[in-house]
Design brief:
This protein is α/β, with parallel strands linked by helices. The chain contains eleven helices and 15 strands. The strands form four sheets. It has an eight-stranded mixed beta sheet, with helices on both faces. A three-stranded mixed beta sheet has the order 1-2-3, covered by helices on one side. It has a two-stranded antiparallel ribbon with strand order 6-7. The structure holds adenosine-5'-diphosphate (ADP). The site of adenosine-5'-diphosphate (ADP) has 18 residues, from helix 3 and helix 10.
């Protein structure tokens, strides 16, 4: 006999996209109605990404229809806009942009730009419309990583049209600065530049805008995340203690301005020797995991130190465009980010 309890058991096998947790324990089921052999399930979700309910619909339908004895299955979705987190009201959103993701690091050289670029590509490969904005005034590198030297055009009313590369809309401070010209803007002027640059860009309709923040946790980072309505932050670290201490600083910076930290990415996590497959934990192991637990956020990905990741960055063909294990890790990271942004809190 088909009972409500049996239906819930079946739904416990349906995972939330990108997660190992199931839709029942995520609290997405509002009700189950059984009428003889026919079943209706009501889901409730706070999402902006239409692919999430679509994927849940598909997996739940498949699971329920595989159960012998079930007649007609109806799945209803009640989809709400996620609420703005407390303390973020008044922050400027960017017209047409649904989710703004900030990629941050406590210090330079940990691979923040590499992660931002590959995350953006992986999000785009999963079917989303994605923009990437290099907010690093002092060392913009995204143009290089995506292999473009093109300059954006401006419209008559002073709006900047982002350039496009590998399916992403792209803006970088580097596009507006000459390679040779030293950046002399500091302090409040620098902040104003970045804000103006974010607002004056015609992003069009985007599901995700990834901001590659300048490294560190100073005034400029703080003022960007204070004035732009960032929906979630990803903090990049390496496994060493020194980097982890800085990741902690980045996390407290976001806490100060009520921006939700989606999780940590541990970059240069380990090295997999290409000739014998042996794993070397060059910078020690377990650091990212412990720090994530301490900060009570998920460890979203562990990206190995990998030659194609480096050459891809230098040659303008990010590794996430390939079909490698590292590209799969970035795809998994993108899946988790999408899912986390659809579940409030
Ligand atoms: P950040 O933005 O934190 O300053 P970058 O992303 O510019 O760091 O990375 C610094 C250097 O390290 C670049 O040359 C980049 O290609 C390289 N790099 C980053 N992540 C990896 C990785 N997982 N494997 C190999 N090289 C990497």
């Amino acid at each position: 006999m088909i009972t409500e309890a049996r239906i819930l058991d079946i739904l416990r096998t349906v995972k939330y996209p990108g997660f190992s947790r199931d839709v029942v324990s995520f609290g997405l089921i509002r009700g189950v109605t059984v009428n003889g052999r026919d079943v209706t399930v009501h889901f409730t979700l706070a999402v902006r990404d239409p692919q999430i309910p679509r994927q849940i619909h598909e997996s739940a339908m498949r699971a329920l229809e595989a159960e012998p004895g079930i007649g007609k299955v109806e799945l209803n979705f009640d989809i709400k806009e996620p609420e703005a987190p407390a303390g973020t009201v008044g922050r400027a959103s960017i017209t047409g942009v649904k989710n703004i993701i900030a990629v941050a690091s406590g210090k330079g050289g940990v691979g923040k730009s590499t992660v931002a670029t590959n995350l953006a590509i992986a999000l785009a490969r999963s079917g989303a419309k994605v923009g990437l904005c290099d907010c690093d005034l002092y060392g913009p590198s995204i143009g290089l990583m995506l292999g473009t030297t093109e300059h954006p055009m401006a419209t008559e009313d002073n709006q900047i049209i982002p350039i496009e590369a590998h399916g992403l809309k792209l803006m970088s401070m580097a596009f507006l600065l000459d390679d040779a010209s030293p950046v002399i803007v500091r302090g409040p002027l620098a902040t104003r530049y970045v804000q103006q640059f974010l607002r004056q860009t015609q992003w069009g309709e985007l599901n995700y805008l990834v901001l590659d923040l300048p490294p560190g946790t100073g005034d400029i980072q703080l003022s960007i995340v204070q004035t732009v309505a960032v929906d979630g932050a990803v903090i990049v670290t390496t496994p060493q203690e020194v980097a982890l201490i800085d990741a902690r600083k980045a996390s407290s910076m976001f806490a100060k301005v009520n921006v939700r930290v989606l999780g940590l990415v541990e970059n240069m996590s380990y090295f997999l020797c290409p000739s014998d497959g042996v794993r070397y934990d060059i910078f020690g192991s377990g650091g990212g995991e412990k720090e994530a637990a301490r900060l009570k956020v998920p460890l979203l990905a562990q990206i190995p130190i990998d030659i194609p990741t480096r050459t891809g960055g230098d040659e303008g063909r990010p590794v996430a465009l390939t079909d490698s294990a590292v590209a799969a890790s970035f795809a998994e990271l993108a899946g988790k980010v999408r899912s986390l942004l659809t579940v409030s809190g």
